[in-house]
Design goal:
- The complex is a heterodimer of chains A (245) and B (419).
- Chain A contains eight helices and three strands.
- Chain A has 245 residues and is mostly helical.
- Chain A has a three-stranded parallel beta sheet.
- The longest helix of chain A is centred in the C-terminal third of the chain and has 17 residues.
- With 419 residues, chain B is of the alpha+beta class.
- In chain B, helix 4 runs antiparallel to helix 5 and helix 14 packs parallel to helix 17.
- The longest helix of chain B has 29 residues.
- The chains are: A mainly alpha (245), B alpha+beta (419).
- At the A-B interface, helix 5 and helix 6 of A face strand 2, helix 3 and helix 7 of B.
Chain lengths: 245, 419
């Protein structure tokens, strides 16, 4: 069947004449709209390079470099891959969440534990900034508030508690005994400061510190989480004071 | 440096010298010569008792409670041998809070020892100071001014109320009630704030001195005390009302952990735990010290000897303490608060015993002087340690859930147990 000439259709000569004088982007009657729109694949690489592009190497540069660096493939609990192109706001939001829902471990060692309980109960209600649910299990806790004298016998179990806590985790040394040894520094039975056996983020001195002091310490910890985000995995565990001192 | 960009490559950067990365979590650095995960070698029993305990019978199992456990009131470890939910036997492990106080005291000045013995029973610190201080005063044969004695009794009874208020909260918490601790900490915080106005510290007061007290009554303390006294009884009774009328609490606590008189005397129990069995033994009456002979108060006793009786007895004692405070304020004499003593104290060689009735029982101190400015020996007798021994007799036969209630009703403080 041959194409019949439609009487209302413009002839190519008329189209050309109209295109020369028209300012419209798509000229009626032209064939431009009928051609497929092809965009380059700038956004992702197929897992199998032969699958879509027929074995042709993708003509991208910056993403190829990014891919070769391997940064998009390292897998941990944090944002990874191309989502890192999304601005760092994602990490910031995560840190906000972490800082404002700190779950301390319910582990009191000595005198300071009473002030830690006062810090949690009616008068100094730490629930006001979401630090309340004291978890009895280290696997559910974010913050270890070491409240009280750490003796050599208790050092092992405390370290075990710290090791059982999932990352990210933070440690608050509450009281003089945990900061430096305090009034029991000269005793044969105590650890002179818990930073000899575990990393410490915030030191709250006092014997014991008032609950307001611990509140201030926890606020400092929140600030630290927001400021020093991402630095927590790189802390070394071990004595900060050389052996023999 | 290349190592700085290494984490981007997906491989963790090489560990610093002397450390290695944990196999569990490559983000954790461990020291090379330190292994957290050393397997615990099998325990070989050293005594016949241990061999008997660590041999499991048919259907029995071990359960380790502590040292980090919210119900042990500190760092006590108890190995329970269970048959189903019934406790068959227990093996308590002490010493997780042993701070070597008695040794530190031997190397400290007489005045400095007061701050060392302070944190023993940390919720009733004034009584921990009171016993050694009176022992030193007997060594020195010094008379304490009457106003100082009144202030001691006044602050001591306040501290007793704070301690009993905490007991109310903890005991209810161990029986599953979460609300009373919120109420009791309101009382406790008010009392320790007024004591802070008097002594300068909220918990470890370091207030009593050899021959008197550190500071006189001040305006802030008196105004806080008057404010609190006007509603103290009502507040305490409101807190008690949460528990006394709670049928679950009463039926669980009644008949639990019964101590009879003979057992209490055999275990050398003192304080509320003894008085709950019907023995009206109170050092304030039987061996009067300070100004207690001049004051009117009752010695409440109960005859049941169970957890509920010990709880109710402590609540009665709060009311008697308020009565004592009232009389102290009424009779408070004027005068000095410190005896005249030299700065450097060298008691003549000798030995002295002193005991005071604390919220848990008799706090005792046995001081031996060799004529120098440091005590040759200070033996501290602590009621918590005495009372904790009773769990070995009380817990076998209990249900697992009742263990905490029995232990809490004895009200031990691990600082005093382990010293």
């Amino acid at each position: 069947m041959t194409e019949t000439k439609k009487p209302w259709a413009p002839t190519p000569a008329e189209v050309a004449a109209k295109a020369a004088t028209s300012s419209a982007l798509i000229v009626p009657g032209s064939t431009a709209v009928t051609e497929p729109i092809v965009l380059r694949n700038d956004l992702w690489n197929p897992a199998d390079p032969n699958a879509y592009s027929g074995g042709q190497p993708a003509a991208i540069t910056h993403l190829a470099e990014f891919d070769a660096s391997g940064a998009g493939r390292h897998d941990d609990a944090r944002w990874s891959g191309l989502l890192e192109i999304i601005p760092t706001k994602a990490d910031y939001v995560l840190d906000l969440l972490r800082a404002n829902s700190l779950w301390p471990l319910l582990s009191g060692l000595a005198c300071c534990a009473i002030e830690m309980m006062s810090f949690a109960t009616s008068k100094n209600d730490i629930d006001r900034w979401g630090a309340f649910p004291f978890r009895a299990s280290p696997r559910q806790a974010d913050v270890l508030i070491v409240a009280g004298t750490l003796t050599t016998k208790m050092a092992g179990p405390l370290l075990r508690l710290w090791e059982q806590m999932p990352e990210p985790k933070w440690c608050v040394a509450m009281g003089d005994c945990t900061c430096s040894g305090g009034r029991y520094k000269r005793s044969y039975a105590t650890v002179e400061g818990i930073d000899r056996i575990m990393p410490v983020d915030v030191y709250v001195p006092g014997c014991p510190p008032r609950p307001e002091g611990l509140i201030f310490g926890m606020m400092k910890l929140q600030q630290l989480i927001k400021d020093r985000r991402g630095h927590w995995p790189e802390r070394a565990i071990g004595p900060t004071v050389p052996a023999g001192v | 440096m290349t190592t700085e960009t290494a984490p981007r490559s997906g491989e963790p950067r090489p560990a610093p010298k002397g450390t290695h990365r944990s196999t569990d979590d490559p983000n954790v650095l461990l020291q090379d010569d330190y292994d957290f995960y050393e397997p615990i070698p099998p325990y070989t029993p050293r005594t016949e008792r241990e061999a008997e305990f660590y041999t499991l019978g048919d259907g029995e199992m071990f359960l380790n409670m502590g040292p980090q456990h919210p119900s042990t009131h500190g760092v006590l470890r108890v190995v329970l041998k269970l048959d189903g939910e019934r406790v068959v036997d227990i093996d308590p492990v002490l010493g997780y809070l042993h701070r070597g106080v008695e040794k530190l005291v031997e190397n400290a000045d007489y005045h400095q020892t007061i701050s060392q013995v302070d944190p023993l029973e940390y919720i009733s610190s004034l009584f921990c100071e009171w016993a050694p201080v009176t022992a030193y005063e007997r060594l020195l044969d010094v008379e304490v001014p009457r106003r100082a004695e009144y202030i001691r009794v006044l602050s001591g009874e306040l501290n007793r109320i704070a301690s009993h208020a905490l007991f109310l909260g903890w005991f209810a918490l161990d029986l599953g009630g979460l609300t009373p601790i919120l109420w009791s900490f309101i009382e406790r915080d008010e009392i320790v704030e007024m004591l802070a106005a008097l002594t300068g510290q909220r918990m470890l007061f370091n207030y009593f001195r050899i021959g008197g007290v550190n500071g006189d009554l001040n305006h802030e303390f008196m105004s806080r005390l008057g404010d609190w006294m006007s509603r103290a009884v009502g507040q305490i009774e409101a807190g008690m009302g949460l528990l006394n009328e709670n049928e679950i609490f009463v039926r669980r606590a009644a008949g639990l952990g019964v101590i009879d008189t003979e057992m209490a005397l055999r275990y050398c129990m003192t304080g509320p735990n003894l008085r709950a069995t019907g023995v009206p033994f109170d050092l304030r009456r039987t061996h009067p010290y300070s100004i207690y002979p001049e004051l009117e108060f009752d010695i409440p006793t109960r005859t049941e000897g169970d957890c509920l009786a010990r709880y109710l007895l402590r609540m009665e004692e709060i009311k008697q303490s308020i009565r004592i405070i009232d009389q102290c304020l009424d009779k408070m004499p004027d005068g000095p608060i410190m005896a005249k003593l030299p700065r450097l104290i060298r008691p003549r060689p000798g030995r002295a015993w002193s005991g005071v009735e604390g919220p848990r029982g008799v706090y005792g101190a046995y001081a031996i002087s060799d004529g120098t400015d440091q005590p040759f020996r200070l033996k501290i007798h602590d009621p918590s340690f005495i009372h904790l021994q009773a769990v070995g007799a009380l817990l076998p036969g209990c249900l697992l859930a009742d263990c905490m209630a029995v232990m809490a009703s004895l009200d031990p403080i691990m600082g005093g147990v382990d010293k």
